[in-house]
Amino acid sequence: MCIAPLSTLTPLLSTLPFSVGQQVETAADILPPVSPLRLVESKAGIDVTFSEEFYGRELILADRETVEQEADNILKDADLCDVAFLVVGDPFGATTHSDLVLRAVKLGIPYSVIHNASIMNAVGCCGLQLYNFGETVSVVFWTDTWKPESFFDKIQKNKQNGMHTLCLLDIKVKEQSLENLMKGKKIYESPRYMSVNQAAEQLLAIVQNRRLQGEEPEVTENTHCVGLARVGAMDQKIASGTLQQMSTVELGGPLHSMIIAGNMHPLEIDMLKLFAVDKSSFEGNECQRNT
Question: Is the pTM of this model over 0.85?
Fold first, then answer.
């Protein structure tokens, strides 16, 4: 088995069963495989019909439930035929894929890995230097009864250390309503993808909550942020500005990510100005560092 990005599928010409990852946004850069494979694609968000035509073979779509609960089916017959497991971005961007490797090793199935770009490093396109990022956080959709703030504490810690924070925004695909879940009905809600402005609105609400609790948070309405959409696609969009400005920015369709900036080098600031909603928000040197 091999775990790798789709864009480098062609080099996998061995007889080993393998699993293959794909590019950040699309499958368009992937050369058609020339060896017989059983292709399994993990919740890639790519047009399956296009993918099947592109690869010239049937593609099995594996959603989160399949990958997490039916991993044995993915590895089925992998000791007899080649299996390509296609994932968006870098194969080890999700711990579930590590589980597949452990299962393969336990079954005595050889595997190999081909790495690729993922949102974790592609965010460098905005100009913020990757080695100045702290812990990555996930921003989840709030509900009427569940409004977690734990990710905000991690953002604040990064901010205190002068580090940037990459915020991965929530994706709701093949989710069940509480009612259908309780009734055991496999009826799924329509997919939802968090946008930059939705994430910013939640962060602003947390800022207000913390002030009501007597705190003065490190992250405020004027904290510099970056919104990114469809990174790696021809129509990718980037916008930079304050957290308040991010709450009204419109970047189009999914997938979105957001960065909360820490201390910035003058070169980083100059890069962010290229995407500024309002360049005046970068005036002053309170966000700069000397090295």
Answer: no
